[in-house]
Amino acid sequence: MPVATSPGRRGSLLSDPQARAWIFQVVAVAAVVAFGWFLFHNTQANLQHRGITSGFGFLDNAAGFGITQHLIDYSESDSYGRVFWVGLLNTLLVSVIGIILATVLGFVLGIARLSSNWLIRQLATAYIEVFRNIPPLLQIFFWYFAVIGPLPGPRDSLSLGNLIFLNNRGVQMPAPSASEAYGPFMLALLAALVLVVLLSRWARARRLATGERFPVFWSSLALVVAIPGACVLLFGSPVNWSVPELQRFNIRGGWVVIPELVSIVMALAIYTAAFIGETVRSGIQAVSGGQTEAAASLGLRHGQVLRLVVIPQALRVIVPPLTSQYLNLTKNSSLAAAIGYPDMVSLFAGTVLNQTGQAIETMAITMSVYLAISLSISLLMNAYNARIALVER
Amino acid sequence: MNPATPQTASGEKLMIEMIDVNKWYGQFHVLKDINLQVRRGERIVICGPSGSGKSTTIRCINRLEEHQAGKILVEGVELTRDLKQIEAIRSEVGMVFQHFNLFPHLTVLQNCTLAPMWVRKLPRREAEEVAMYYLEKVRIPEQANKYPGQLSGGQQQRVAIARALCMKPKIMLFDEPTSALDPEMVKEVLDTMIALAESGMTMLCVTHEMGFARTVANRVIFMDRGEIVEQADPETFFHHPQNERTRLFLGQILY
């Protein structure tokens, strides 16, 4: 025993790997705990020094400031809690519209990049190279200051048939509001949609059973137009339109889309679409040419080759990077604060923070909101991805 | 059937006729005045060094490649730019590729029923019956519900043959069907092709399997540098080749 342990004893405890591991871990844990305690204590002390009480009680206090765009009722006397919901909805509004526009535009761009038409291909390439290489914040400024800013004032609005007005206060358009015939109309529409679903199921079953086709698209279209149409003839229009009217200094009535919203949505959709376009192009190109050849050599038409063979395989490559583009767009919507669009960041991490001084709480709430939105998008897209994923092996 | 179908002097119908077909890739002249007649039930093997235009020749027959001069008639119908006609011809001409090109997102059965259902408009039940019939012919009915990625190369190629047969084609084109296979899987694919030949199918096969050419082909064609250099029955072709280039090629591949 003395012989065996002598080399170990010669060095200190530090040369024994197991003891070393323990020591380092204990030191690391102690350091982290100490740092955490320091942060907590320091914050407590500072808050006390400035007379700020921590906690979420401030959410019930009256906000006392106006907000240019609120999707739910809001007035200055409402609480900070209400401001939270206004900001959240405004952020979601930008994200949802942005994601939809960017996806549509992106798919068009991706397919255009692979077009056999030289001009279309070059235009798509130029678009992508320009818009994905300029910082999104600059693009937002471009739309806000360079495109919408110089538009004429309300009196000299650019108008489309005196229904839609475009001016430096944004876009003003007719707003629908429900009339008495709204209920019956929605019922008729619902009935038509149910019929369409039943019809397409029946047509599919019949196609599988007998091989015969039924013009599902056209008959569905007829159903969706005819049934609610008949309802309109019977009960009158389901909505009353509030049409914006040009008055002496201003335009009254209708829906007003504020210039900040127009700028941020345009900028983010156009910026993100450039990335989505590249994702879609690479997804389609990732499907080998052999697949197209094999499908074509069986006599399938070009459209069928795309729909039945190429796109199902391309989607599996497209969806994961598409998810991160959606996340990018959502997070980039916080840049809206730079032009004063009342989103989560500018309202909550801006005005509310300044007014209440509750930096920790407001930042925590704002960051949690983005985390929650992003995780929800990830979850949804992962579920979709799992559905279409390759079952190859 | 078709009154316009051209006939040979002996009155047999021609399945494929290529008349002075030429094709260029840019400056490169891939096919030079290709003339080829294929009668019903004929089994033709095309061989030649790589880059000689063998694959391009058969890919022109179902318009995977476009020829720039000359005429190609399939069952008397000329291949033009008319898409409808190209699709009609493709649905009558089966093709098997070197790399199988099975659809990885569909099961073996779905691979086989896709075209019959969408092109021939067969009901699913019927398409599945046809598919199972041919999967049994290529001896892998038990794999019907697996995905291509779960099969060996030889099995995948047999599925590819079954997939083409499900369209009940009148002509089968094979583009080096065994070149991408491990040696021990070549035989199972060749056996399938021999069985197909015995059933009377018109076959055009680009291959380096000279054993297959000897036992199955009625005619062997040798191509080099975009030309048909020599064509003859297998006996004459292998034992009494006329052209110097043919002799050189055979000397290299028949050790």
UniProtKB/TrEMBL annotation, chain A:
Primary residence: membrane
Top-level taxonomic group: Bacteria
Membrane spanning residue stretches: 20-40, 84-112, 133-151, 181-202, 214-235, 255-276, 335-353, 365-384
One GO cellular component term noted in the UniProt record for this chain: ATP-binding cassette (ABC) transporter complex
Signal sequence residues: none
Subcellular location: Cell inner membrane; Cell membrane
CDD domains per record: TM_PBP2
InterPro entries: AA_ABC_transptr_permease_3TM, ArtM/GltK/GlnP/TcyL/YhdX-like, MetI-like, MetI-like_sf
Membrane topology, as annotated: Multi-pass membrane protein
One GO term (biological process): amino acid transport
Keywords: Amino-acid transport, Cell membrane, Membrane, Transmembrane, Transmembrane helix, Transport
SUPFAM superfamilies: MetI-like
GO MF terms held by the record: transmembrane transporter activity
PANTHER family: AMINO-ACID ABC TRANSPORTER PERMEASE PROTEIN YHDX-RELATED, MEMBRANE COMPONENT OF AMINO ACID ABC TRANSPORTER
Family recorded in the similarity comment: Belongs to the binding-protein-dependent transport system permease family. HisMQ subfamily.
Protein name: General L-amino acid transport system permease protein
UniProtKB/TrEMBL annotation, chain B:
Topological relation to the membrane, as annotated: Peripheral membrane protein
Claim: Cell membrane is one of the keywords in the record: yes
Domain ABC transporter residue range list: 16-250
Keywords, in A-Z order: Amino-acid transport, ATP-binding, Cell inner membrane, Cell membrane, Membrane, Nucleotide-binding, Transport
Pfam family, one: ABC_tran
UniProt GO MF annotations: ABC-type amino acid transporter activity; ATP binding; ATP hydrolysis activity
Gene3D superfamilies associated with the record: P-loop containing nucleotide triphosphate hydrolases
Entry's family note: Belongs to the ABC transporter superfamily.
Protein name, as recorded: General L-amino acid transport system ATP-binding protein
Originating species: Pseudomonas flexibilis
The encoding gene: glnQ
